[in-house]
Design goal:
Elements: E1 10-15, H1 17-27, E2 40-46, E3 49-57, E4 68-76, H2 84-99, E5 104-110, H3 118-122, E6 126-130, E7 135-139, E8 142-144, H4 154-165, E9 168-172, E10 176-182, H5 185-188, E11 195-196
Parallel strand pairs: 1-11, 4-5
Antiparallel strand pairs: 1-2, 2-3, 3-4, 5-10, 6-10, 7-8, 7-9
């Protein structure tokens, strides 16, 4: 059984996507492919070792989810202590409430991969609906959002060609559960300050055991 997180040893910092990219590449089912815009990134450290990362951005349906920020990606190393994910999520929400003008935090749990949203329930998110069945473009050992085949990027041209010649295909899965966290006025009145991670010695943070 994994040890419980000692919050006194945990640190959350803002960062660039490049600083946490390997976390998603190695520990997230979507790997490190990021579609859409990135508004902010966060890194979690335990005893000065990088153990988690999160990426937030504007919702794809901004007219539907007004004044809202979307948790686009979150992942932690398998070795991270019990409760690390819920602590990381709670600290990110507190920072957003104190430093940004958003009223809501949006996220999704993908039923296709067995994510039912346990962490969101535990963090006082409310289930507000479900998406249509998900569609994923499979190309080799990577998965892409269908939007990737319509945007104007180099890899998108290659992806469209792969679909035409049969190297890639579209897979239909289950819906995603939609979760919303309402930011209260009391949360907005609190001061939360994170340091900025500059990426120094980033590679060494992945060397050796964590605990």
């Amino acid at each position: 059984m994994k040890p419980r997180l000692d919050k006194r040893k945990a640190t959350i910092m803002t960062c660039d996507f490049s600083h946490i990219r390997d976390i998603f590449k190695n520990f997230h089912y979507k790997s490190d492919s990021m579609g859409g815009g990135i508004s902010m990134c966060f890194a979690m450290f335990i005893d000065n070792k990088l153990v988690g990362g999160s990426v937030l951005g504007k919702p794809r349906h901004e007219t539907k989810y007004k004044n809202c920020i979307d948790i686009r990606r979150m992942a932690l190393l398998d070795e991270a202590p019990f409760n690390s994910e819920s602590f990381f999520l709670s600290q990110i929400i507190k920072w957003i409430a104190a430093n940004k003008k958003y009223d809501k935090v949006l996220s999704y749990s993908d039923l296709t991969v067995g994510h039912i949203g346990t962490i969101y329930k535990a963090s006082n998110f409310k289930e507000v609906g479900r998406t249509t069945p998900t569609k994923t473009v499979i190309w080799g050992d990577k998965k892409y959002h269908p939007r990737s085949i319509t945007i104007d990027r180099d890899y998108s041209y290659k992806l469209r060609e792969a679909l035409k010649n049969g190297e890639a295909y579209i897979e239909t899965g289950l819906p995603k559960v939609i979760w919303i966290f309402e930011i209260s006025k009391s949360m907005k009145n609190k001061k939360i300050v994170f340091g900025k991670y500059d990426g120094i010695n980033n590679a060494s943070l992945f060397d050796g055991g964590l605990f």
